Amino acid sequence: MNPYALIDLHCDTLTDCIHKGLTPDTLDDPNRVLSLTAIPSDVHWAQFYAIFIPDQHRGQAAIDYYETNRDNFNRQMEKFHDRISPCRSVSDMHAAWEAGKTAAFLTIEGGAALAGDITRVKKLADDGVRCMTLTWNGENELGSGHTTTHGMTDFGRQAVREMEDRGILVDVSHLNDTGYADLFETARRPFVATHSNARAICSHKRNLTDDMIREMVRRNCLIGLNYCKSFITDGGIGDSPDDLYRHIEHFFSLGAYENIALGSDFDGATLPTYLNTPAKAADLYEYFLENVNKRKGNIDVWYNAPGKKLIQDPQTGIIHGVIIEVNGAPKYVRAKNGVILATGGYENNPDMFRNFAIMQHAYSKGARFNTGDGIVMADDVQANIVNMGNNNGPDPNVINPETGISFGYMVARSKDSAWAGPAFTRHNVIMVDQDGKRFWNEAQKTRHGRVPFHGDYVHLMMPDPAYMVFDENARLASKIYGSWSEGSEKEIAAGLVKKADTLEELAKIIGVDAKGIADQVAQYNKFCEAGVDPQFNRPKAMLKPLSKAPYYAVQVQPTFTNTLGGPERNQNA
């Protein structure tokens, strides 16, 4: 069995038989690059033979020129039937290979072959044509080539749709930039650029821009590498296979891992010496394979490369890759087996939090870069988004005024408690709302920010703002907050901790009802004396009175750990 297959999407050999009039109409002329004898016998070869329609041919002249070359194609297939076989399908191609023959597909370079008659699309399909470029260099009834500036015509758009329906691949090589934009709006199915390279590597207008390549990747289109020297390097300078491989590397950088094909332009262009025979083209395959294999097992890692958009097939809905941003520029990454969204929740996307969370405002303790990117990308491709209102919180916590971020969990191990709870609860600390009233058991054991309620855990109904109030005994007992200074002296000096000689004065500073807080502290101190908290059932060991001036207050605000919603997982996948 032959070691590998090679499919070449474009050559001008068939037209060269007649157009130049140099030799009899034979596909096995030794003066041509692509003679049947020159094709390596140890390679399964499939060749797209193009009928090139020169720009000067229009109307009936174009039809006549096409039919002359079509008839010659059929004549050559019969003449060399023992070595080449005409094909119209993949199964035909494999049958030819199994018989030890070259597989031949009939194509057209130049939509002028339609002569402006839409019914001719069916005629071409019946003739066995399986691919057609819309233009050559100039203008025709379908649109404009790269030497002109106009886009596609209304007839051209109609022809594209008809070609798609009749099983003729739309070929965009030679189409100008405006025409590409028009085609992107028109095409419903994948198309092909049979012989085009990357314009970022070689600036010739015949080559594809990065935006064109990205769109073709998104649509699962093929791009055939062109061997023409003028399309490989600027000015056609250089004669190394590395020159062509730079195009491949660039295609890879745009996610075109499964989109690259070959489109030699044999017998239609000036070729570099390393590609001027079919055998050398076959060797080039080995060269490319060697270079590609060097990449195997290597994982490209891009830092500061946020995901922007999933690449989805518009027909099947299948996700083929993702667009990321690297150094401010988009990069298209093709995924062979799928895309894993491991982008976290929407903890730090304020708009999403307001729209979905049960809290209208809260500070996140989660990763700063969890901004819901993955959820947005999944929603854009109509994934089923579930549980968006589910999150872990809120917790009362202290916010760093310089960063707007929580200092961290208000958690510390206490000798009075078997669990980790708010750091302040081993001392005489309470939390109050703007009325000066307590709103929960400050020593409450929580579960990811949720509190027990009749056998279940629910979100804490927390006022915003709220304040932690404590006295001098609490301040001197230990650090009020784990990362703060001894005695919280720096925090007091900075104004983060408010200080006053009386509760009434403290209330005025923080904007809390003075009578309310005085009454609440008096009531709480009675609970401490009795050893029972009928208000919120705070444990006896953690009931310590607020009795020694001065008094202190720190604002606490709702914080949460993470959100739990996102695209629904297919358990059968």
Provide structural commentary.
It is built from 16 helices and 26 strands. Among the domains are: 168 residues, Metal-dependent hydrolases (TIM Barrel, Alpha-Beta Barrel); 48 residues, no CATH class; 166 residues, Flavocytochrome C3, Chain A, domain 1, CATH 3.90.700. It is of the alpha/beta class and 573 residues long. The chain is 28% helix and 20% strand. Strands 1, 2, 3, 4, 5 and 6 form a six-stranded parallel beta sheet that branches. Strands 13, 16, 19, 22, 23 and 24 form a six-stranded mixed beta sheet that branches. 40% of the residues are buried. The two termini are 36 Å apart. The chain is elongated and about 115 Å long. About 3% of the residues have low confidence. Helix 15 crosses helix 16.
Query: Can you tell me the overall shape?
Result: elongated
Mean pLDDT: 87
Percent of residues in beta strands = 15-25%
Q: Can you name the CATH architecture of the domain at 1-16 and 43-194? A: Alpha-Beta Barrel
- What is the count of helical runs? 16
CATH homologous superfamily annotation of the domain at 1-16 and 43-194: Metal-dependent hydrolases
CATH class label of the domain at 1-16 and 43-194:
Alpha Beta
Secondary-structure-based class equals: alpha/beta
Largest sheet: 6 strands, parallel
Q: How far from one another are the termini?
A: 36 Å
CATH topology of the domain at 1-16 and 43-194: TIM Barrel
Which regions have little confidence, pLDDT < 50, spanning 5+ residues? 411-425
Assign a percent range to the helix content. Answer: 25-40%
